[in-house]
UniProtKB/TrEMBL annotation:
This is Proline iminopeptidase. The chain crosses the membrane at residues 532-554. Belongs to the RLP family. It comes from Citrus x changshan-huyou. Residues 589-882 form the Protein kinase domain.
């Protein structure tokens, strides 16, 4: 039958069919895409709603009417779907709804870095499976990072300084094989070994899988262990930043061999071995920073050709040998820091080619030879520090060519010959120290022409002749010319109390006023009269010249001031309600109203027509050279057209400050080339005035303390009261002003930055801060942050306690108040000598509390300084107040109770008590409250065997009575709360993690791990810390170890505090691990029991040992969790859920259970079951206290009772309503009180 369709119609049907299919597909696409776009709009509007605050205009385009592709910060792909969210540095404050935004199906990039975002990074992030870039750095998130293993395409991950904490999901990084950039620095992660795969499975580092990495940043965390050798094989790696951790071992020797390696910073670790030789193999390296480690060997010669190098810092290591000559002349090098090593040999002539070199730091080595004259051609030098070496010969004659040189330290060498006259041409010099050399000849009077000279130390040389009168011109804070061969009169302006020791050891000097020196009028003969006449003639001439110069300078200043203020247009921005006009202010800014000069400008007192007083700061020119000296008609500030926006932004920040302890800023008045800031006027001047000048007053400690707290609160507000910290930059006592009631106000905050804004050219020579207050790290970083302010505030606290200036001659070689105070920390009596004698005796102990806070603030390592928020808390806890006292008026009243209390405070007999009662003395109550948290002032790793290192830390009072805390387990490790049992003002608190526990390595290791090994470790630590003897504190297993250690070394123990007694006898182990305690905790026992098959339950310790030491990791972890939870569930009388959760932490549980089981299986490695009771006689003489909870299930009271019966001399305290844990309120209170009792016995010499 013929077909009904022709070929043409058939073809048409096929075409129609295809078009129909396309139409259907298109319609489906529209159906799918339209809702998607609608959803995306809703998702982004939801994100906007979560942002509480942002820069103006950020979300102005985010409207219902606009397409998402037109939203500011949003980039769409070719299909019109959101591909990127780019909102960095937009002042965003709020919570990020990750669960929502990861619904953007095409999203490839999230960049929200450098904002003020908070909240947690939720599990919803897992849904962003197409994400390639995630930048959340520099925010304020909290909590842990969720699993990232689903983000397979991620190439860039930045969580630097984002506030995240807890455990990081290292395992999930295995799947991120495209990762090129990883930055996790400066986050409070839980302390952990460097992420090694062998903590989970296999034997390679987890990061080995990330072989595409080009940048790795894990700085300022708490990682320990070794750097994986595989890093040396990463062929794309160009940046490695691991500074401020606890890393050990060597730096991979192939590091940087493959790519254009740019920089490495592994500073402040515990690394050893040689410096890898090929990190500059391709000539691209800019920064080699390995300072403060234990590197050894020589500097590889390959770096002599590294012309790209900018910073070369290898200080504080154990490096040796000579420096390859080419390093001195590298053209781009700005810092060479080789200090505190064992280098030798000369500095070569080619250093003159180092045109970019700013810092030459070679102190504390054995360099020798002459300082090459070519050094004067290194024209960018700002600081030369060559002290404590063996340099000899003359100081180069052309040293004066170094116009930027600010500090010159050549002390403790063998330099000889005269001091070059040209040194007076180093116009930027602020500090000179040539002490302990063999320099001779006359002191050049050109030193007097140095406008910024602050300290001059020429002591212990062979200078002769008279002291130049020109030395009276600079405003010196420190002058030391002692132990030379100087003769003639001491210039009168220098013959003051502040310089009383500056001229000793010069028999030829004379004085008209100081009885220590011979009188200048005692000479006789013609030569004496001639010299007197010549001296007077010179003096008169100099006075006339100075008066004439002063006249012209004053006139020039007046003319410049008038010219700068006569502007046609002024811009007045008010920040508060004002009752004055700009004209009143401008008319009053004149020389006769000048009341002060600061680092940022002149200050004028303005009295308004209403009688109100104001202070007006006229800011220094940023490019004026010698500030305060108007030598030309140059405008006071560079033209505002070049810096208006930055200046206005800074002033806007300052104007937002509202705090009772911060000076009020009323307004700013600006013209084209002038800037005035109008503040409230504080009539009582500055703290500096009241402590150190002719305006000094007698301030008792209560007033000083109030000033310290108020100033701290003001600084805390600047650091923590804003979206971003306001860094003061120049904290000092002269910037703390006092109102009529002596309440402090912080002044000049942020002005250093305003003055520097718009500074042209190289900023290396701009110093932030004032000499004596500047944090030590500024010398090598040239950067400041909040911790820099904390250091400076610590110096202010020292001023308040000691009454001394930051730099005075009596400090000698210590140079400044910080080093001087540190040198007095060897004993409490020594520390008391630094307290201002004007502080009453009864309050000196309170002053010492604040001094210890100052010591924390001035820690050399910024990371160990407290935040200002913590400083305020510490100061508030140091309030000078009388604790609850009871005055005993009758001999017979409450005699028994008072005898006990008196004995707690060192009164050993009733007659002593009667004497106290009759004298009317007061008996304070013992403190029973846990002390506030304190941070360690030092930490370290001590190698105690071929395979073991132990972590240790010290907190509290560095010169206090030492006490060592022995933790339980023995696999438990220490926690910060362990420090709280001890008064940090009295005790030097030492914590350490026993072998295999906590931060000690190797983790959970049983080899070479016995009780006797631990006893040896305690002794090694004591010797390492140079402690003659110490108090020992231990609970649970810690009480076992404390008894064993004390019996082995009784002469090293001053007192014992034992809690939850565990004598490690079979009946104790059987009670807890073989079913006894199950009668009280049957529910908890079931989980512990059921992990073990019935046929192995004859000995649970044995059965668990097999599993805890299994070759299978998961078997180990399962056993560890069960073992740990059993103990945690029984440790408290009332359940403590937080403690129980520790059993879920595999890392903690493995060490806790495995090591504990190891010791119990081996019966504590004691030779007999009753070993500790049998050897009580060894320690019977030691002052000891036993604290025991009556309902302790882990270590039942039978053990404490047996110890008490064997050792009745020890105090025995039973807490009636407590179980085992030291954290139970009754136990904690008794432990604190016991330490207080021992403290008072020690104070009273018993």
């Amino acid at each position: 039958m013929p077909s009904a369709f022709s070929p043409a119609s058939s073809m048409f049907a096929q075409v129609s069919s295809k078009w129909s299919l396309l139409v259907v597909v298109f319609l489906v696409f529209l159906v799918l895409v339209s809702p998607a776009k609608s959803d995306e709009h809703q998702i982004l509007m939801n994100l906007k709603s979560k942002i509480e605050k942002s820069d103006t205009g950020v979300f102005s385009s985010w409207t219902e009417a606009n397409s998402v592709c037109k939203f500011n910060g949003i980039v769409c792909d070719s299909n019109g779907l959101v591909a990127e969210i780019n909102l960095p540095e937009q002042q965003l404050l709020g919570v990020v709804p990750f669960d929502s935004i990861c619904g953007l199906q095409a999203l490839q990039k999230i960049n929200l870095g450098t904002n003020f975002l908070y909240g947690t990074i939720t599990e919803g992030l897992k849904s962003c499976t197409r994400l390639q870039v995630l930048d959340l750095g520099n925010n304020s998130f909290s909590g842990e990072v969720p699993d990232l293993s689903m983000l397979h395409e991620l190439s860039f991950l930045n969580l630097n300084s984002s506030g995240i904490s807890g455990k990081f999901p290292w395992k999930s990084l295995e799947n991120l094989t495209n990762l090129e950039f990883l930055s996790l620095g400066d986050n409070p992660f839980d302390p952990s070994p460097f992420p090694m795969e062998n903590r989970l499975e296999g034997d390679l580092s987890e990061l080995r899988f990330l072989n595409q990495l080009s940048s790795l940043h894990l700085f300022e965390n708490q990682f320990s262990g070794e750097i994986p050798e595989e890093f040396g094989e990463f062929k794309h790696l160009t940046e490695l930043s691991l500074y401020t951790n606890r890393l050990t071992g060597t730096l991979p020797q192939k590091l940087g061999s493959w790519a254009d390696f740019n920089y490495v910073d592994v500073s402040e670790n515990l690394l050893t071995g040689p410096i890898p030789p090929d990190m500059c193999k391709t000539g691209a390296m800019t920064d080699l920073l390995v300072l403060q480690n234990n590197f050894n060997g020589t500097v590889p010669e390959t770096y002599a050709n590294c012309k790209s190098l900018i910073r070369f810092r290898v200080n504080n290591n154990s490096l040796s040998g000579t420096i390859p000559p080419g390093i001195w002349s590298l053209p781009n090098l700005s810092i060479i820091d080789l200090s505190t090593n064992q280098f030798e040999g000369p500095v070569t002539d080619d250093i003159g080619n180092a045109k970019s070199l700013a810092l030459l730091l070679l102190a504390n080595n054995t360099f020798s030879g002459e300082l090459p004259s070519k050094i004067s051609e290194a024209s960018s030098l700002v600081s030369i520090q060559l002290s404590l070496n063996q340099f000899s010969g003359q100081i180069p004659l052309d040293i004066g060519k170094l116009k930027k040189l600010s500090s010159l330290y050549l002390h403790d060498n063998m330099f000889s010959g005269p001091l070059p006259y040209s040194i007076g041409s180093c116009v930027s010099l602020t500090d000179i120290n040539f002490a302990q050399n063999s320099l001779s000849g006359k002191i050049p009077d050109s030193l007097g022409s140095l406008p910024s000279l602050n300290s001059l130390n020429l002591s212990n040389n062979k200078f002769s002749g008279e002291i130049p009168i020109s030395l009276t011109y600079p405003k010196l804070s420190l002058l030391d010319l002692s132990n030379n061969q100087l003769a003639g009169p001491i210039p009168e302006p220098l013959n003051i109390k502040a310089f009383i020791d500056s001229f000793t050891g010069n028999p030829g000097l004379c004085s008209k006023t100081d009885e220590y020196f011979k009188s200048c009028s005692s000479g006789s003969g013609r030569s004496h009269h001639v010299s007197t006449f010549v001296w007077c003639l010179i003096a008169v001439t100099m006075v006339l010249l100075v008066l004439l110069a002063s006249y012209f300078v004053v006139k020039l200043k007046q003319n410049n001031l008038k010219r700068s203020l006569k502007q046609n247009s002024w811009d007045m921005k008010s920040f508060r309600v004002l009752s004055f006009s700009e004209k009143e202010i401008i008319d009053a800014v004149k020389p006769e109203n000048l009341i002060g000069k600061g680092g940022s400008g002149n200050v004028y007192k303005v009295v308004l027509n209403s009688g109100k007083e104001l202070a007006v700061k006229h800011i220094w020119p940023s490019n004026s050279g010698f500030r305060g000296d108007y030598r030309s008609s140059t405008a006071m500030l560079s033209k505002r057209s070049s810096r208006s926006s930055e200046y206005d932004a800074e002033v806007a920040t300052l104007s937002a400050v509202r705090h009772v302890n911060v000076v009020k800023l009323y307004c700013s008045i600006t013209s084209e080339d002038s800037n005035l800031l109008v503040y409230e006027y504080l009539p009582n001047g500055s703290l500096w005035d009241r402590l150190h000048t002719c305006h000094k007053i007698e301030m008792d400690w209560v007033v000083r303390y109030a000033i310290a707290v108020g100033a701290a609160k003001g600084l805390e507000y600047l650091h923590h009261g804003f979206d971003r910290p306001v860094i003061h930059r120049d904290v000092k006592s002269s910037n703390i002003l006092l109102d009529l009631e002596w309440k402090p106000r912080i002044a000049d905050f942020g002005l250093a930055k305003i003055v520097q804004t718009g500074e042209a050219g190289d900023l290396t020579h701009v110093i932030a801060g004032t000499h004596g207050y500047i944090a030590p790290e500024y010398a090598y970083t040239c950067k400041i942050n909040e911790k820099s302010d904390v250091y400076s505030f610590g110096v202010v606290l020292m001023e308040l306690v000691t009454g001394k200036r930051p730099i005075v001659p009596e400090f000698g070689d210590s140079k400044d108040i910080v080093n001087w105070v540190y040198s007095k920390m060897d004993s409490r009596d020594s520390m008391l000598t630094v307290v201002d004698p004007n502080i009453s005796e009864i309050l000196k102990e309170d002053a010492l509390k604040v001094l210890r806070i100052a010591i924390h603030c001035t820690n050399k390592l910024p990371a160990f300084r407290p935040s200002m928020r913590v400083v305020v808390q510490m100061l508030e806890e140091a309030e000078p107040c009388s604790v609850t006292n009871i005055v005993v008026k009758k001999v017979g009243e409450r005699r028994k109770d008072l005898v006990i209390r008196a004995q707690n405070f060192g009164v050993k007999s009733e007659p002593e008590l009667i004497d106290m009662m009759e004298s009317g003395k007061e008996l304070p109550e013992l403190n029973r409250n846990l002390y506030p948290y304190v941070e360690p002032y030092s930490t370290g790793i001590l190698k105690v065997s071929d395979i073991h290192t132990i972590y240790w830390e010290q907190s509290g009072n560095p010169t206090g009575h030492p006490v060592v805390f022995l933790h339980g387990g023995p696999g438990g490790g220490t926690t910060p709360s362990n420090r709280r049992f001890f008064d940090p003002d009295f005790y030097r608190i030492i914590l350490f993690d026993q072998r295999g526990a906590g931060k000690s390595t190797p983790h959970a290791c049983l080899d070479q791990n016995t009780t006797w090994d631990l006893i040896d470790d305690i002794e090694k630590l004591r010797q390492h810390l140079e402690i003659p003897e110490w108090q020992v504190f231990g609970g649970s297993w810690g009480s076992t170890l404390a008894l064993a250690y004390s019996q082995a070394h009784p002469d090293k123990v001053t007192g014992l505090v034992l809690r939850g007694i565990f004598l490690l006898r079979k009946k104790e182990i059987d009670w807890f691990y073989e079913g006894g305690a199950a009668a009280i905790y049957p529910d908890a026992w079931e989980s512990f029991r059921d992990l073990i098959p019935e046929n192995e339950r004859s000995c649970f310790v044995d059965a668990y040992s097999k599993r805890l030491n299994s070759d299978d990791k998961e078997t180990q972890y399962a056993a560890a969790r069960a073992w740990t939870k059993w103990e945690m569930m029984t440790a408290h009388l009332l359940p403590n859920e937080e403690n129980i959760k520790r059993g879920e932490d595999d890392i903690f549980s493995l060490a806790f259970a495995r090591i504990e089981n190891h010791y119990f299986l081996n019966k504590g490695f004691f030779p007999s079951d009753s070993f500790l009771l049998d050897n009580i006689d060894n320690i019977r003489h030691i002052n000891a206290t036993i604290v025991q909870g009556r309902y302790d299930v882990c270590c039942p009271m039978m053990s404490a009772w047996d110890l008490h019966k064997a050792w009745p001399e020890a105090d025995f305290k039973v807490v009636a309503d407590a179980g085992h844990s030291a954290n139970e309120p009754g136990i904690a209170a008794e432990l604190v009180a016991t330490n207080e009792k021992l403290k008072n016995l020690i104070k009273n010499g018993h």
